[in-house]
Amino acid sequence: MSAIRDVAELVANAAADSPDRLALVEAGGRSLTWAELEDEVARLATGLTTAGVLGGHRVMIAQGNRLEFVTTYLGVLRAQAVAVPVNPGSAVGELARMIDDSGSRLVVADPTTAAAVRRAVADLATPPRVAVVGESSYDDLRAAPARPVPPLQDPEKLAALLYTSGTSGLPRAAMLTHRALLANVEQCARVEPPMIHGDDVVLGVLPLFHVYGLNAVLGSVLRRRAKLVLVERFDPQETLAIIDDEACSVVPVAPPVFAYWRGEPDLRERMGPVRLILSGSAPLAPEVVEEFTEHAGVPVHQGYGLTEASPVVTSTLCSDTLQVGSVGAALPGIEIRLVDDHGRAPDEGDAGEISIRGANLFSGYWPDGAGGPDADGWFATGDVGFLDDSGDLFLVDRLKELVIVSGFNVYPVEVEDVVEEVAGVEEAAVIGVADDLTGEAVVVYVRAPGQDPAAIAEAVREHCATRLARFKQPARIEVVDELPRTVTGKVQKGRLRGLERRRNLGLLE
């Protein structure tokens, strides 16, 4: 595997060895063998080049979990262009900002995203081309016979931009190279017992635009030549039926899924084909792991990761023994160290900021590579944890004010800026609160002195519905006359979180 320099080369190798084996299956019935997948990838790479997409050009992918997402993503990489997968539920303004920021020359949409994409590009001074799956604009890209593409010479070439982080300011795009993506795929492949092996049928319900679905799931499937069952969206009962119908043996999910399934009376029977459940993208409470494992009869293995690490850093599959509260030990080839407030290693057993080093790390944030690993290759994650004697990592807190809703990042300042556009709102402060279904939920405190609280709350809710993706919209709006502040005038979000804790304990009305 060390000779592979291009992620799309994984498909060519699988097609050469197992052309007639199924590679991708949609829950709706469509499928592609490895040979068919390779043909589609090669055709799209040729079509993109013919359409003027050159090496290094960015191509945005605004699609749900479908065959065309996979073929487009891999076709872009085969053409040595840069894939920019985005949430298909993004609002028009969000799409416009990401298109403009990335400088995308082409946006590939599907029927569910086409209207929003077209509205987004209409607002831009230099609009990119738009191709829509099911229309001639997309069919033309894959119409011509494939032509050979010169092999990628440098694995340090940029492969993908994924919008993430940005603890202050708007989300930034992490620059992931072929080297970083392939390194993490290989690190995952070296885990024993294996996360995924060649005989597995893997549930693909995690969004492919998210790094977890894109590389931890799809990348590992390509590497192992397993079968991926693509599911457009998670529905508790329908997804269980798909697991049974398709005999899914590996089920990668995000923590909110467990809340939906925990009360299922026939869960053990419906999980019959499953040998392993993988949970990532946000911490999972220890009691949930224990209860679910007992109820379903299937082991749940957790991991810790982040977009900047392509994404997997640890897994409980790497632990000497399973421990309550642990997110596992580092994958082969990844180093973890803890740093205190003074830049030194904390005392034994104390928590510190998690720093990581490995070939899987990103190359900084778009466009100039700022904020990447330091000169020695270490990247400070902004997360806080401690390591035990066995090397297992335990997460404690986040330095960042990021809110994670269903595994997706919500940046408070982005929501605050939108809320402050509402007439009558003088200031907004966003925090995350615990939520049984989504892990965290967005709560916004709105300073609107002299205004009718109910009217302001309704105006904020309506405005956010048009300007923000659903998962970023406030679950609750608290209208206040004043916000708590420090002596320097900064809003004390810690006090707001304290109010929420008191509210949860029933100490506030």
UniProtKB/TrEMBL annotation:
SUPFAM superfamilies: Acetyl-CoA synthetase-like. GO terms for molecular function: medium-chain fatty acid-CoA ligase activity. Residues 13-366 form the AMP-dependent synthetase/ligase domain. Residues 414-490 form the AMP-binding enzyme C-terminal domain. One of its GO terms (biological process) is fatty acid metabolic process. Keywords: Ligase. InterPro entries: AMP-bd_C (IPR025110), AMP-bd_C_sf (IPR045851), AMP-binding_CS (IPR020845), AMP-dep_synth/lig_dom (IPR000873), ANL_N_sf (IPR042099). Belongs to the ATP-dependent AMP-binding enzyme family. PANTHER family: ACYL-COA SYNTHETASE, MEDIUM-CHAIN ACYL-COA LIGASE ACSF2, MITOCHONDRIAL. This is AMP-binding protein. The lineage of its organism: Bacteria, Bacillati, Actinomycetota, Actinomycetes, Propionibacteriales.
